Amino acid sequence: MSENTWQVFDLAKLKKMVEGPEPRLHEFLRGAALSGAIYRLPAGARDMQAPHFEDEIYFVLEGRARLRVGTEEQEARPGMLLFVRATAEHSFFDIEQDLTLVAIFGNAARPRKE
Predict the structure, then answer these.
(1) Smallest Cα–Cα separation from 74: which of 66, 85, 82?
(2) Using one digit for the tens of pLDDT, what is the confidence trace for 13-39?
(3) Alpha-carbon dihedral 101, 102, 103, 106, rounded to 10 degrees
(4) Looking at per-residue confidence, does 50 or 58 come out higher?
(5) Is residue 83 a part of any domain in this protein?
(6) What secondary structure letter does DSSP report for 33?
(7) Which residues, at least 6 apart from 73, have a Cβ–Cβ distance to it below 8 Å?
(8) Cα dihedral sign for 35, 19, 8, 77?
(9) Which of 90, 82, 83, 24 is nearest to 51 (CA)?
(10) Can you tell me the distance from the alpha carbon of 2 to that of 60, in angstroms, rounded to the nearest whole number?
(11) Domain for residue 45, yes or no?
(12) Would residue 53 count as lying in a domain?
């Protein structure tokens, strides 16, 4: 069995990687089909994301904020899973409590060969 067949990540250790007063992102997984990161936005911070080329799922670990996708808004609180389609304009705002998320990115869409 290859050493890259599986990996285990400890959320407590990952959360320590993004501690501090500034927004931080730490990528903990990069594979051919998906990648994973832990993302932290302190209360009152501004989310500076740009649209991604990959579909994305956010799992809210801690905090409270709102997510705007295009013209729609959704509360973001612990336990929620939020999906954002590739290239969609999106950002977190009204960050009331330090927000910690796990972000899972799918493989970037590739043009089909015809």
Answers:
(1) 66
(2) 999 999 999 999 999 999 888 999 999
(3) -160
(4) 58
(5) yes
(6) S
(7) 66, 67
(8) negative
(9) 90
(10) 31
(11) yes
(12) yes
Work out how many domains the chain is built from and give that number. Answer: 1
| CATH assignment of the domain containing 68 | 2.60.120.10
- Answer whether 37's CB lies under 8 Å from 17's CB: no
User: Which structural domain, as residue segments, surrounds residue 33?
Assistant: 25-106
In a domain, 51, yes or no: yes
Nearest Cα to Cα of residue 52 among 89, 104, 99, 102? 89
pLDDT at 40: 98
pLDDT tens-place string over residues 51-71: 989 999 999 999 999 999 999
Pairing label, strands 56-69, 81-84:
antiparallel
Share of the chain above pLDDT 90, in %: 82
Tokens of 61: 């670990």
